[in-house]
Amino acid sequence: MSTFERWSPRLFLTLRTYSSRDFLADLIAGLTVGLVALPLAMAFGIASGVTPQAGIYTAVVAGFIISAFGGSRVQIGGPTGAFVVIVAGIIAKHGVSGLLIVTVMAGVVLVIMGVTGLGAAVKFIPRPVTIGFTNGIALLIASTQIKDFLGLRTGPVPSDFLARMLLLAENISTVHWPTLALGAASLALLIFFPRLTRRVPGSIVVLFLATAGVALLALPVATIGTKFGGIPTGFPPFSLPPFRPDLIVPLIPSALTVALLAAVESLLSAVVADSMTGDRHNSNVELIAQGIANIFSPLFGGIPATGAIARTATNVRSGAKTPIAGIVHAATLLIILLVAAPLARFIPLATLSAVLFIVAYNMGEWREIGIVLRLSKADIAVWAATFGLTVFADLTIAVEVGIALAALLYIHRIAQTTTVEPVTPAYIEEGRLHVLQDKEVPPYVTILRIHGPFLFGTTDKLDEATANLDNFAPVVVLRLRNMTALDATGLHALERLAERLRKSGRTLLLCGARSQPERLLKQAEFIEHVGAQNILPHVSAALARAREVNEAFGGLGPEFAADMQDLS
Question: What are the chain's domains?
Answer without folding.
Answer: 3-161+168-239+246-363 (no CATH), 426-567 (3.30.750.24)
